[in-house]
Amino acid sequence: MSETRTTTGTPLEQVLKKNDAKALATHLDLHTAGDLIYHFPRRYDERGEETAIGGLQIGEQATVLAQIQSVQVKPMRQRKGNILELTIGDDSGATLTCTFFGQAWRERELKRGRWGLFAGKVSDFRGKRQLVSPAYQLLAVDATQDEAAEEIEEFAGALIPVYPAAQAVPTWVIARCVRTLLETFEPPADPLPATVRAKRNLGGIGTALREIHRPSSKEALYAAKYRLKWDEAFAVQLTLVQRRARAAAAPGRARPRVEGGILAKFDASLPYELTEGQAAVGEEISRDLTQPHPMHRLLQGEVGSGKTLVSVRAMLQVVDSGGQAALLAPTEVLATQHYRSISAQLGALGRAGEIDGDPAGTQLTLVTGSLGAVARRAALAKVADGTAGIVIGTHALLYEGVDFHDLGLVVVDEQHRFGVEQRDALRAKAARPPHVLVMTATPIPRTVAMTVYGDLETSVLSQLPRGRSPIASHVVPPEKPAFLDRAWRRLREEVQAGHQAYVVCPRIGTAEGEEEEPPSDNEPARRPPLAVLEVAPILEEGPLHGLRIGILHGKLPADEKDAVMRKFAAGDLDVLVATTVIEVGVDVPNSTVMVIMDADRFGVSQLHQLRGRVGRGSAAGICLLVTESVEGTAARERLAAVASTTDGFKLSEIDLEQRREGDVLGASQSGKHSHLRLLSLISDAKLITEARSEAADLVGDDPDLTKYPALAASVAALVDEDRAEYLEKG
């Protein structure tokens, strides 16, 4: 152990035993004192005050000081393995049984005659009180009375930290290493300004780091957690506020509205009025585009709220001012769907230069990876010389050789499908930073938007267009098999009424390279998820016999996918059996029913997205959630929540509660540690709001935090450059 003071940058091999340091590095990726000190406990065990065995109550958490009176190892009756059974007793003569399953090796240290502390929940087995697999600590054979009393007090009265651990590095090893570290640990300079600490009643960083590992009381632990949550929230919010300030000052190019231009003609040609929401959001975006610095706006809206129309109007404003707009979609199916629907919306205005085109209009072009060589050259020529005012494509737009004449606006649809590098590559194709409009149909809770998209202005479309029908959702459970038969009859009734249907499965089937999803909810091993290529023939031969059934999944060649979607959109197919490739953007107003097989294998937001594909016309939509999950499981609770509401924002909070919140900072993309260790985006909403306010005040006075070097260093450590870019690019 080091005799000098230990700082956050000290390598662990200078502080701990060599084997411990190596184990922490190998199995938990902890290399420095800072890594270990910020490896916080995930919960705390309370062992209860020391109690005499005679006074124990069934069901209570208890700690007893007792002597081992007998030790016995015997085989289990029902399965392989052994049981280690102790009889322990205290000075009063009362006894208690301690039972360990499959841990006969403990017999080596649990010797008859040794005194120790034993802690656990008191249960009853055949009329005898017992502790099952209790925590224990044996007293030193030669311990003095005072030493024993001190050990008893620490063991029984403390909040015992339980750490995120690995099989090779259990929690008690981590706790021992932390205790060693704390003996010489020198806390860093406090990053929070004294004014913020005083205003928000926050303790010092040194006290917080000690108390979170070795809490002296519940009150001290709460104060430590609250202070460290502030560090996390403040670092993220400072980064976002700084980036928003820099974006506001960055040089861009104004794209003002042009009187009598393509946008005006387009608006005049619409066969319906914009909703109030579409008009209001359209004005926000239009004002942003007229500014001489880049727009960074997030447009979120419920499924079917008309986001695409809003984005088309923004793109036309940029085209009117002499620029180009690019719409980036995550899949070829969605890119092609956007190309067709926008072409139809624009009509002659999108066919400038063609016989039936409006010479005052523009041209659209589609760029995807499956374009043939001749078509690709023609499309890229239109992009390069500016003939194509609106360019729609997949990640193929990002490749070398795709050059824009004057890229003025980037619209990113379903942004969560794109990596940071992909979005950045498209923005880099503009001479000056372009305006950016990020769209998502996944409603985002306010605190998530504030924490992940806090450098973007946010617009919300919550109002559905006139004539859009409601969607009814129902769970089809395993305990009522007749419900599934009724589901297929209901689908046939819709088809007979002239409508169309989707059947969605979690996986493709026998397609090469497909990975199966792991089971969810920690349930016992189950059959593989249902697959499109297996379910489609069963339906064709069985309950949907005689209907025109098509198959769609991501492994189909692009021309086949396109052909299937064309047939379905034209009404030449009754039922589309598909994977989640239809989750976003697919718009067939005649589709009224969706049956989702193995619905429990999907997330809440994904189910909400999927069902948004039906009820897009004047006829009401119905979504049937088929599951084998039984009542009382987390999976059934999720499905019940989806069936109970169409409020996407409410569902997104449920979805967030069930995911690792740290993923929202990009840990899942970067493969690095998540830095939201303590902060909860839902339960800590008030704290996040307060941190945002303090960050705005601080950056307003000192944009680069030059007066606060410790704070700047802390922000750099908590929100490293990769993660900062993730936050920036949203």
UniProtKB/TrEMBL annotation:
Residues 483-662 form the Helicase C-terminal domain. SUPFAM superfamilies: Nucleic acid-binding proteins (SSF50249), P-loop containing nucleoside triphosphate hydrolases (SSF52540). The keyword Nucleotide-binding applies. NCBIfam families: PRK10917.2-1. Coiled coil: none annotated. Residues 288-461 form the Helicase ATP-binding domain. It holds the Pfam family RecG_dom3_C. This is Probable DNA 3'-5' helicase RecG. GO terms for molecular function: DNA helicase activity; hydrolase activity. The keyword Lyase does not apply. It comes from the Bacteria. The gene is recG. Signal peptide: none annotated. Keywords: ATP-binding, DNA damage, DNA repair, DNA-binding, Helicase, Hydrolase, Nucleotide-binding. Residues 509-528 are annotated as: Disordered.
